[in-house]
Write a structure and sequence with these properties.
mainly alpha, 0% strand, flat
Amino acid sequence: MDLSTMIPELLSALPLTLAITFTAIIAGFCLALVATTLRVRRIPVISNLADLYVSYARSVPVVLQLFVAFYGLPLLVILFGFEDFISANIAAMVGLSFYHGGYLSEVMRPAYLAVDRGQHDAADSLGYSFRQKIIRIVGPQAVHIGLPGYGNSIIYLIHNVALVMYIGAADVMATAHLIMERDYNQYQFETYLVLAVIYSLMCLIAWLIVRFFELRSPMLAPEAATAAPVKNVLMASV
């Protein structure tokens, strides 16, 4: 088998890999937002449950979380009286969403706590509600602080998507193993090399997107504003 035959086969499984990744990114972000809010507000019992969820997501190996989702979700669905409709793809999305949400919560919470306490006090003195304080004052600063960690969490998620083959999801990695088995493992190096390029490109695109928003963060505006007068003084002195 040459690359002209192998690459189209691998790319045919790329849409499923991207679907699992995007679903986990969006659902995981929502879970992380809820978990972080509960952990910051310290609501009795509920905040403890959020801490337990984050501890589970960060402590249990990702492949084991996928197995829990794959074998546990059908039991949960049947328990509520519904017919089992959980496929490997759905289990992969749910398992990775829970993992990403817990991991991302440990990026959001430190970013929120890193905002100077004076900013919170200033918002409270203006009579802002918690929602208004987050949106107008604390949120933009926390986003700027947490963007690098958020980019890392997405890259880790892309890496872990390769594990969904163990529960039967036909992603790029699973397709690569099928190709190698079909060809009696004659082209292992070539196949893994193409896989490395695919995953590297996915991580590079994710990093570029996060970097784009990081460079355009409103928090960089004061630095640009103070740099301009210094530049003008240097030019005038020349």
